[in-house]
Amino acid sequence: MNFGELLRAVIPTPGEFKENVANWVKANAKFWGVSFGMHVAILVILGVAIGAPHAGKLLEEVIYIDSEVDTADEQAAIEHFEVGETPVEPTVLNTDSLTEPPATIEQDAQYNDSSAVFEEAGGGMANGTSAVGGLGVSLASLGDGPALMGAAGLEVGKGDGNKGGSGGAGEGFGGRGTGSREKMVASGGGTADTERAVGGAVSWLARHQNADGSWGCGLQGFARHCKDPSCIKFLKDKDPKEAPAEYTMAATAFGLLPYFAAGQTHETAGVYKPVINRGLTWMTRNQNQKTGQLGTGSMYEHGLATIALCEAYGLSKDRRLQPHAQAAVAFIEDAQNDKSGGWHYTANPATDGDTSVVGWQLMALKSGEMAGLRVNPQTLIKAKAYLKTVAKGKSGGLFAYTAESGPTPTMSAVGLLCNQ
Fold first, then answer.
1. Mean pLDDT estimate for the chain
2. Residues 216, 222: contact at Cβ < 8 Å?
3. DSSP 11
4. Helices in 317-393 by DSSP H: which ranges?
5. What is the pLDDT of residues 71-100, one digit of tens each?
6. For 310-328, what is each residue's pLDDT tens digit?
7. Which residues 6+ apart lie within 8 Å of 338 measured at CB?
8. Residue ranges of the alpha helices (H) in 212-354?
């Protein structure tokens, strides 16, 4: 018997195969059907008995979470905006109540001194092919936390092993997220006590905010919210004619910036969300809708408020804030002295300007760049030309208030910062 005859003897013809299948079904189908049905019934009973309680618990948790979000979001919307994106995880500044007195050393439990906020940045990737240190990348600075505008920090692994570097803190807003907060605090000498002090300070700011969302510098500002006897005596003894100006726009910007420094925005969950939301609402409602100016006319005030708006937009990427921040940047560009490249107390000054005002405007423009807003390169080129006119010293590392005056430590600090 050859190989072909062997295959024909073993493999049935199509007719034979069809007949064999029919005979098997007649003989065995009812037994397999009963077995299949019993298994299905058992699985259904087990699913109901075991899975239902867990499903109910999960549903309860989802409803609870939704109700918490709804409760937290019952805030007045910021006007003149379109609905935008939400931020990623922020740094958490936790306090039990905004009505409690300022923190003391004994109130450690009121603030998160060593919570999940503190996560090590970086981590790096090992170089497995040689004995040279690997390359570390701080992914936390790229996206864990409100740091989308921050570039990743890089660091090469140390020593002769192949372990990756730890990664840097990132650029831009990269240091505001959860990933690099502990490392940055520790590198600057921060401790649990300093973190507690920060927590107490932002709590104080929240308790001294005006009902309309603003802050003020005078008797009608934060001072009237004070309950401390020394503050009350100050209010009673102070002659209203000698009271400092309110500078409400600048004070509101100063009130908001500490929250932004910790990665908090008007869209992050937490006790300070309504505080920040009210502050931004007040700022945008009181911005000149035609010119984009913030404040009562002082370029100091406008520059400071522009920094706050740009940081709020850069951290949250809320498209509702974008037109307001962009208009504020444009006002700075239009207010520049075209010939000198400087800024002075008011827009379009007849004088060349002064380094103090220039510093605030350049910081605002830098915040705008970091937030992804449009900044005219020519504005920065002209500002750099102005800084050359006030540079002093053999190497040009000292700076003066104006070109005619001598250098001072304060103006040198401003000039060096602006040249970064």
1. 71
2. yes
3. S
4. 322-335, 355-370, 377-390
5. 344 444 433 333 233 343 444 555 544 444
6. 999 999 999 999 999 999 9
7. 382
8. 229-237, 248-261, 273-285, 299-316, 322-335
360-395 pLDDT tens trace: 999 999 999 999 999 999 999 999 999 999 999 999
Tell me the longest C-alpha to C-alpha distance in the chain.
Answer: 124
Q: How far apart are alpha carbons 179 and 29 in whole angstroms?
A: 62
Amino acid at position 138, single letter: S
State CA 397 to chain mean position distance. 33
Secondary structure letter of residue 337 according to DSSP: -
Cα→Cα distances 109→182, 193, 306, Å: 18, 12, 36
Looking at the chain, the whole-number percentage of residues with pLDDT higher than 90 is 37
* Angle, CA 369 vertex, CA 304 and CA 149 arms, to 5°: 110
The owner of tokens 């010119």 is 291
The encoded tokens of residue 389 equal 């006119």
Instruction: State residue 198's pLDDT score.
Output: 83
The pLDDT of residue 207 is 85
Give the H/E segment covering residue 156.
Answer: strand 154-156
User: What's the length of the chain?
Assistant: 420
CA distance 212 to 210: 5
pLDDT score of 304 more than 90: yes
289 DSSP assignment: T
- pTM, two decimal places: 0.62
In angstroms, rounded to a whole number, what is the distance separating the alpha carbons of residues 257 and 152? 23
Backbone angles phi, psi at 108, to 5 degrees: -55, -40
Amino acid 201: pLDDT: 87
173 in Cβ contact with 314 (< 8 Å): yes
Q: Within the chain, which residue ranges are assigned CATH 1.50.10.10? A: 285-418
Distance CA 326, CA 373 (A): 6
**Cα end-to-end distance, the chain, whole Å:** 93
Asked if 314 and 371 touch (Cβ cutoff 8 Å), the reply is: yes
- The neighbouring-strand residues paired with 399 are 391
CATH class in words for 285-418: mainly alpha
